[in-house]
Design goal:
Blueprint (H helix, E strand, L loop, with lengths): L2 H39 L6 E6 L12 H16 L3 E6 L11 E5 L6 H10 L3 E3 L12 E3 L2 E3 L6 E9 L10 E6 L2 H22 L4 E8 L1 H4 L4 E6 L1 H5 L17
Parallel strand pairs: 1-2, 1-3, 3-8
Antiparallel strand pairs: 4-5, 5-6, 7-8, 7-9, 9-10
Length: about 250
């Protein structure tokens, strides 16, 4: 074998080894990212999950708003990526406990009974104005002592929460998407899809409640979302008692 042939053979072998190492590295990194994603969502291979669908309160018959349908599609893609299965259930047909399966619950308390139950049990510091009458507080959030009013199409808010039941390691989380309008529900699911790795690094498998602001949805749809803050402590603590009204003292002259 001449030196030229030997060099060619060695080059081919080196290229093959480099390609194999690169493939192994990419496969390892992909599997590690997938495992982290599965842990964060509580969706190991072949596991079952629940998609709780709300109803469109503006419709005369049971229906789902188109933006909520888009939100469900975003979630379905996440579930499929984790290699898990899903069952789609309407908000009035869920008759099971919390923590048995990973749950994705879409819609505010005005359109989703399941959301009402979750908020009463786990978010005592949150109140949502579900009064259908027009007014400045329609759809407003109260979180602790703060109030967040919406300006439809301009400034709207949505809660994105990951909640777990107690300290059971095997308990599956519930993800809540509680928005002031249907488009904000989709904005929250899209935010979760884009930022789940960052959220997993920050929160791990702990519960959290984030308040998001959807900016100018009439122009940008669900794409422009700002994080207002982590409101976990306020949302999971009882609402502060209203200040007592001082009594007027009347003394006889």
């Amino acid at each position: 074998m001449t030196d030229d042939v030997r060099n060619i053979v060695l080059g081919v072998v080196a290229a093959g080894i480099s390609a194999a190492l690169g493939w192994l590295t990419r496969t390892y990194l992909w599997k590690r990212r997938l495992r982290r994603k599965q842990v964060f969502f509580g969706l190991p291979d072949g596991s079952e999950s629940l998609l709780v669908v709300n109803r469109d309160p503006a419709a005369s018959e049971p229906a789902v708003h188109r933006f909520d349908v888009f939100a469900l599609l975003e979630l379905a893609a996440l579930i499929k990526d984790c290699g898990a299965h899903m069952q789609v259930v309407t908000q009035d047909m869920v008759h099971q406990g919390f923590g048995e399966r990973t749950e994705f619950c879409v819609g505010g308390p005005g359109s989703n009974r399941r959301m009402v139950a979750h908020m009463a049990a786990m978010l005592p510091g949150v109140r949502v104005n579900v009064d259908p009458e027009p007014g400045p507080d329609r759809g407003a959030f109260q979180i602790g002592a703060e109030r967040y009013r919406m300006d439809p199409g301009v400034t709207e808010y949505v809660l994105l929460a990951r909640l777990t039941a107690g300290d059971r390691r095997e308990a599956r989380p519930a993800f809540l998407f509680c928005g002031q309008r249907a488009i904000t529900n989709q904005a929250a699911t899209r935010y979760l899809a884009r930022h789940h790795e960052k959220l997993a690094r920050k929160h791990g498998t702990n519960s959290f409640v984030l308040l998001l602001k959807v900016v100018n949805s009439q122009a940008y749809g669900p794409d422009v979302v700002e994080l207002v803050g982590d409101v976990t402590r306020a949302a999971t603590s009882p609402l502060p008692a209203p200040a007592a009204t001082p009594r007027t003292s009347h003394r006889a002259s």
